[in-house]
Amino acid sequence: MLVTADTVDHAPRRGRIYHALYFQVLVAITLGILLGMTEPGWGAAMKPLGDAFIKLVKMIIAPVIFLTVVTGIAGMGEIRAFGRVVTKAFVYFLTFSTLALIIGWAVATIVQPGAGMNIDPATLDAGAVSDYAAKAHDQSIVAFLTDIIPATMLSAFTEGNILQVLFLAILTGVAINLVGKPAEPVTDLLERLAQLVFRMVAILMRAAPVGAFGAMAFTIGKYGVGALLNLLALVATFYLTSLLFVVVVLGLVARYNGFSLWALLKYLKAELLLVLGTSSSEAALPNLIDKMERAGCGKAVVGLVVPTGYSFNLDGTNIYMTLAALFIAQALNVELTFGQQLLLLAVAMVSSKGAAGVTGAGFITLAATLAIVPTIPVAGMALILGIDRFMSECRSLTNFIGNAVATIVVARWEGALDREQLARALSGEPPVDAKDVPSEAGPILAKELAA
Predict the structure, then answer these.
(1) What is the pTM of this model?
(2) pLDDT in tens, 115-131
(3) What CATH number corresponds to the domain at position 323?
């Protein structure tokens, strides 16, 4: 049996739970918290461990997306199927991203987490958020759209821009699909390369506990648990709202589409802990692609929905933006009319796409939104700068779960979901027809191994 990230996560031998990736990451997170609390200086010094792991994962993301998308589109048969999948995916993204914004707005309006703070905007340190505001200024919708096109075919990979890689992969996949039979050797080669790349992912995931330990120790050591106390109302409101969205909204979506959200979360437990430890959903992107294929979702659907979802289906970020924006307005005693609040929602929907793929995207997106809605001073972001790191973990987790659910739903809509394989995967059993053949090996290799 080939050893991949999935087999390492899912099948620890009886009595050897310490072999499971999720257990190792959980232990690492716990140790990171303890170190950050007892030795803050040492904890803050662990930052390079987390940063190095994130760089390792980002190094492999571009080839994973490119190979998955190209081989998926190439195997679609009719190119019309590609347009169908993209349309269905964006209908889902738009619907639930908007719903996330509305839920964040409704909770902030009802709970009023910033009310009573009575802060004078003149006393805020605008310089503390100047860097974020500068980055947000560069994230206009026009700049975002033009930035999707890479300067060269190679620069899409060297710059690490997910949307550029996706754009190039779609072009390549469509071209291979249109060429047809003469391009089959190319598809065969790409499928074999995909096998190698996913084996690299399995190797890199061995370092996940180290990365999670370093990132968590840094967060607690640098900012301290006490940083939460001053603005506990906002943090608690954001976490509860995100939990409400996941459990109620995504739970109902999962139930309607015939699967259990809780079973899906158990299936992705190692990836969720990795996202929690690193505060980055990108850290688990390669594994999410692999596991969604193993769960019976069509390769082409996975290849298109997961990468685009990381830029366009940001449920956690959308909840955060409306909550944070209204919190700042309430804290500064800025009265917003209903029309201004609607404008805030509309701008947040657009700006959340404009800041996709940028480091600290949630905070930068908020800056971009407030810059376009000048009623709320951008300097007000200084109020939440100290706790943003704690909220980024919840943002990332919600975004990750939302994209996992979206992949299964779009696969079902497209008729590209193997329900029996999904049920077996979510129950912890191996796939029906390919117990020992990893999905990344591709159909050609699978046939050869079966022979």
Answers:
(1) 0.72
(2) 776 666 665 555 555 55
(3) 1.10.3860.10
